[in-house]
Design a protein that fits this description.
The structure is a homodimer of 244-residue chains. By secondary structure, chain A is of the alpha/beta class. The first copy, chain A, has helices at 24-32, 47-51, 78-100, 119-126, 140-148, 168-176, 190-199, and strands at 9-13, 35-41, 61-67, 105-109, 132-135, 159-163, 180-184, 206-210, 218-221, 234-237. In chain A, helix 3 crosses helix 4.
Chain lengths: 244, 244
Amino acid sequence: MSTQRYGTIHGVGLGPGSPDLMSVRADRLVRTAGQIAFFRKQGRSGHARRIVDGLLRPDAIEFAMEYPVTTEIPLSDPRYKTCLSDFYARCTARLMETARSGEDVVVLCEGDPFFYGSFMHLHSRLSGHVPVEVVPGITGMAGAWNATGLPFTWGDDVLTVAMATLPESELVRRIRDTDALVVMKIGRNLPKLRRAVAAAGREDAAWLVEHAAMPGQSVIRLVDAKNVAPYFSIMLIHGQGRRP
Amino acid sequence: MSTQRYGTIHGVGLGPGSPDLMSVRADRLVRTAGQIAFFRKQGRSGHARRIVDGLLRPDAIEFAMEYPVTTEIPLSDPRYKTCLSDFYARCTARLMETARSGEDVVVLCEGDPFFYGSFMHLHSRLSGHVPVEVVPGITGMAGAWNATGLPFTWGDDVLTVAMATLPESELVRRIRDTDALVVMKIGRNLPKLRRAVAAAGREDAAWLVEHAAMPGQSVIRLVDAKNVAPYFSIMLIHGQGRRP
């Protein structure tokens, strides 16, 4: 491929939410970007976009990539896959067109772009066609364990990261078989997750963190949680490993 | 406790190694610090200290906390625990003295301070006595998966983070029972880890990353590795989960 006149697509990790938890490299890319792109739900301002409020060049061109569907169609429905696949293809086409015109684009990514990130669906479609660079970021889970104010993993602790979308029996098994635990993608799965934590006998050790490192940050014991939580809330069980 | 005239001990995550992967908050604290502290092995300059080379105030006071022992005494030997415990108590006493004199101290931490970090041993001793603040950082493992250039975890993938210090049979079991994998604290445990990965049938999927996001970064297939690796090298197996 000839990339001499091509712009670069930068997948930039913004960290857990507070603008000063962006890396110095991310901060510089965001502030100087002529074109930015970001995912959001239709009708919302978008988490990633909100993090960079007030940092962008006044003349920056913004491309809001609006999910055609998020939770309305079940994951198991084949239409879900087709619908999202078409969406990512359209976003990719537009980004590729911009890169081929010689312009860079900064794609805003919450947390770390390669850790359960939507950007990965663009990355796999862009790679090999136009230059793509990724800037790692502080993960949402690191923002969450920092918010509890307690060290998270010690010594030989095993850490398991699991999604609350897993079947309940699988969650129980995973919770029983780990020292430290992170559960993401909670949202409407919270009642199932609470039953799984209780069945594994770890209720007293579990924390629920919402909006870590953002305005409205909340850190509560899971037992004190209501039965609804934002999709981006994170459940934690701290490790208790070896310490001198 | 009366903290009105006390300084604050800041545990500051520096990220995986490249200075511009520090957060904006960390960068500001490091550049303005009057006093810094960092761990290092005797006779070495120290990883954390090297990351901030050229960023410090010329008049910054430096406190090098030199491990009395790292790998010379086996973990199972009771002298190991006593020796390290005394060491952390001495470091804590010195930091507490500085804070009580009204001075802040920035403790330099590789990666994220609460993720398998030595700072946690100070944090648990300082908390409740003097003000302690923690700045999260990009973990070494995020630096490592970013170095491979490939997205790491997708959809419902389960991620397991395990230390190579675990028994071989336990490593085999953990590798068999996960989608994505991170193994840390490798060093002299590399031959054992390679046997475990082979026994679990995941040899073809495993990467070894050394010095991620640092000069001398190396990303190789585990099958191409020699039988020695730095203690801070990281082994990865990427998840292969759901993707539209």
